């Protein structure tokens, strides 16, 4: 099951997979708003079966501060809150046996401010990406503790040559030159395939941290109890209430 915003590109990818003998289902969805994330989670819950693996790979590296309809900073929603909203119906329905979060080594630079980070008042074209990726990594540690029957892993996939963080102007040109030396998406995909083939990623109730394919201790910032508590409390305050049961039954 493949999820993305662009239905045409999703359909093209499904066709390419089927031409090679595989099977895939396109599920259009958008994580740029919490309402969109709720709707996507409901669609996925209705089309998946117990034992599914969820791979979180959506991400935004913003170049300027923008707010969502909820008044929250866009990267904070896309990189953190919306994926949590989207996966909750799947967890509630016990559809998931494993969750992989494709995170970033830059969480080591994350600094969460409960009063500023959610609305981007501490916005930085570099630090905001680090902050929001840190938030989701910490949240997934809590998810693992709350759902010990679900195997959870958080990983830095490698330094990969993609359009993430693309910028206009001189900075963008310099970044594009630097990216030429980074590894290709195909190399990263092969690495993720090997990790997916592992029988188990983490002990029950825990989420382990991988740097590429090697398990590492969690970075110090991710072990800081004050930071973990601040992210936990802000997340609980900002997550929308679940839709009423009648809405769920109607789809």
TrEMBL record:
Keywords: Oxidoreductase. InterPro entries: NAD(P)-bd_dom_sf (IPR036291), SDR_fam (IPR002347). SUPFAM superfamilies: NAD(P)-binding Rossmann-fold domains (SSF51735). The keyword Oxidoreductase applies. It comes from the Bacteria. GO terms for molecular function: oxidoreductase activity. Pfam families: adh_short. The keyword Oxidoreductase applies. This is Uncharacterized protein.
